[in-house]
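Dear colleagues,

As part of the handover before I leave the project, I'm documenting each prediction I ran so the next person doesn't have to rerun anything. This entry is a single chain, and its sequence is reproduced below.
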Amino acid sequence: MRVLFFLLLVSGLWLGCHAPSGTLRPVADAGDLRDGSASVHAGASAVAGEAACEADEDPLPPVPCTLPVAARATKSAGALLAGLLSRASERNEAGQELRRSTPVQLHMAGRGTAFLGPAPTSTMNSSQSMIADRAAERGDPALPFFREALSCANTALRVQPASLPVLRQRAIAQRELGSPEEARDTLTRALALVPDDPETLALAADLYISHLSATREHSEIGLLYAEQGRKRLSPKATATPGKTNSRRRRAAVASREPVLSDATRALLARLWLLSGQALLDLGRASEALPALDSSLRLAELSEARYERAVALFELVRLPEAEMAFSELLAKSPQPPNRQTAFVHYHLGLIFDQRGRTDDAERELKAARDLLPEQFPEPLSVSMAEFQALVRTETDALTPEHAADLKRVRLEIADLPDPADLTLETPPLSPTILGLFRGLPLGEEPSEPRSIVLYRKNLLRAVRSNAELVREIRKTLLHELGHLHGADEDDLREEGLE
């Protein structure tokens, strides 16, 4: 009878999510299942947890939640909830491990790794959206794991709609299925229940920084979540109790450093990593570097090593960045993974900046071979052709902008001069598309004012000739804005970021 009751419950819940519209949907009554001592029984239609079904309304076939016999036979709502949560967690972990072991992932549930445009280059977290389309998802071997995790989580939410661990597993499954907006709704619900839970805050930070569309607003929200999570992991709340690790506890007391459990250290390392990623996305590499160092002091994370190398690159500490990327390449897995492609790419940028053309092309080709959709063959536009495009765009400027352009010297270079980049504090990124030299109008005396456009960086920022023309025009207007004293925030508001 216990097996029958469970099958009635699970089949009722599953049908409640997947019955055709307009039909009566038989579901189990979840009302009496919130108390761990209650028995599982079939009953009238339940309203609680109705939203749990919404995530499954897509064209891909559902994967039912499969539980062990002991869990299926239970009459305890608490035991059933634990079984469903355990299965959701196990399926999510299995799917993520499969994704990590896939050389080139078929399904990208995130933003990829680097801005290929005028925004600062960041990393595993800060690129244009790389979420695969549904056709590509059907070939993803990890997909069934996440779909079963979602089914288990949705069923568990019928049992206990306010379960924070279940909501976290549901959000992970939604994120990995390429539905970050649905994951955002789930995490919003979780944080409405427990606003200061560090694990949930870490998930929310990761979602905004790495999986939702790459916008400044999302990076700022993710940074706030990461900071809030770190504040919650205060020394008072995370001291390791009991007799374990007594030697480490005595040493920490002697040095006045807090003692953290291994789980807390891992979570805190992750939160510092997320802060570093967000700061890189926001062009604040000088702040990102100490955040990433804090992460690495707590745990050895390859992501933090990678992001730290990117921060060194953004700070124009090129010899250090080359060493950091080379060390990552020496330790990269075989066959190479997605991170390896971005390591090759950044090494190519460093070698090009340092005049090692052959080495640069070798590394950039390696990145293209691994991730052709992220690193396509650059446009073939010679310096003479590029100069002609620039002349066409300057001729098309409005009279007002044309008059402004006469006040400066217009130059074209392949790449920025590191001496120009390091005049600012913090330094400018080696990937900038243009530069204004001198003081704004009205501030005298000023060195001869000039605007420089960087051909190679502009070619790497676009994928078509039409896009190149637009970026040349936009970069010109951006730098002319600096001539009138506009800062980056002003230009961002005008759409000239």
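The two ends are 65 Å apart (CA to CA). The longest strand covers residues 409-413.

All the best with the project,
I.
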